[in-house]
Each structure stands twice: as structure tokens, then as C-alpha cells.
Amino acid sequence: MRFDLVTLMPAMFDALTKEGVVARAIGRQLAQIELWNPRDYTRDVHRTVDDRPYGGGPGMVMKYQPLQQAIESALSASPQAKVVYMSPQGVGFDQQRAQTVVENRQPLLLIAGRYEGVDERIIERYVDEEWSIGDYVLSGGELAAMVVLDAVIRLIPGALGDADSAQQDSFMDGLLDCPHYTRPEQIDGMSVPLVLQGGNHDAIRRWRLQQALKRTRERRPDLLQDRQMTVEEEKLLAEIIAASGDAEQTQEQ
Hints:
- By secondary structure, the protein is an alpha/beta fold.
- The protein is built from ten helices and nine strands.
């Protein structure tokens, strides 16, 4: 898959492209990342990419012309790309959106803004969607773009060493992940659950599902509100609620 990024700080992406899962995916030619710097399209000696906002106010705004030419160059290289502006005003980026990107196989062109944002006419003319990674403000869109890239690229078949790893992540089936353990079995008086030490794969699967439901209920109950429960999930959740009620009664006594 191809990914293009319009950014004033291309060196920041070295952290993503030179190590880890994304770097391996690039090495395996599963992902291609191209960077486009608006400063390369400026016309003055100072390579100016920002100016004061109309109407006054603090901060600066990214200028139209350098951004336009950077975007046009990227679209010339990847004409089918979906153009996304990383913005706290955008729709929430989540696991489902990452999966959809991979399933559609449509190239992405991400625009990382700086300062107070970009000239609104860039958004009106070029941007297909605005995405946000959370209700907070960053110094620029680069970190948000890296989050999106990492979340998407790790889902590309072959990007992870174990084909099942991504399928067992939190949110992949709408639930938080279950607890995980490794060797040794005993550490400082804490033991690995006995069910995981046995060879009963169905019992292990059931335990993991129950733990995922339990964690989701405790930490992200909103994820369960609209979930279409299977018969097994309803039974496991009822057991969790019953056990929780017993624990609360014991504490009250």
C-alpha cells in the first residue's frame, strides 16, 4: 500500500520508518511511504510557509500556495489517494477505520498541519476527510499521522510476524484484549492462571473471551452498549456480573 505525507518536518518520520513493524513492512515492500515538504515549493529566499491570519489573532496559518503544490505533486504520484487532514476537529480514528483502509486498499495522502492550522481553502479544495486521534491538541499533525500509519500498516497481511497477532489485538472484535502471560509460571508469589497452563484449547479460548468481556465492562463499558452479543458472550457476561455482585456483597459485609 502507498502512503503519502505532506509535512514540514519529514525527519520526524524516521522514528516510524527506520525501526519496528512499519520499517519491516517497508523492507518487505508491503508499504511505501513518500514525504512531501511544502518548503520545497516556496518561492522566496526564506522558504516561508506561514503568514498572519486574516482578522487578527495569535499564531500563524500555513499558506495556501506551498501546501497546494505539495499536495498536487503527491496526487500526481498517487492520483487515487484519499486525502486526509489530521485535525482535532475531525472524526475519531479507530480500529474499524484502520481496518477499512486496509480492506479498501486505497492509497492515503495525509496532511500534517502546523501552527494554527492550514488555510481553509486547502480543506475545501482537496481534503476528503478530517481525522482526529483524540480530544486534545498537538503541536502538529505529524504525531497523529504516525499513529494512523502504524495502526494501518500493522494490519496489512504479512506486516506482522504472526498472522494471528493483529486479530487478537484490542478492538479487533470490539472488545479490549485479555491478559497475557509468559514464562516463568511463578514470579514473586504470582502465578499464571492454571487454565493457560493446560492444553485445553477451548477452555483457553473461553477464558480469554471472558477476560476480554470483563476488562471491557470495567474499563470501556461504552463498547458493550451496542454490541450484538453471541449466546456464549451473554452467558459469560452474566457470570462476570454475578461474580462481581458477590464480591461487592462480601466487601459490604
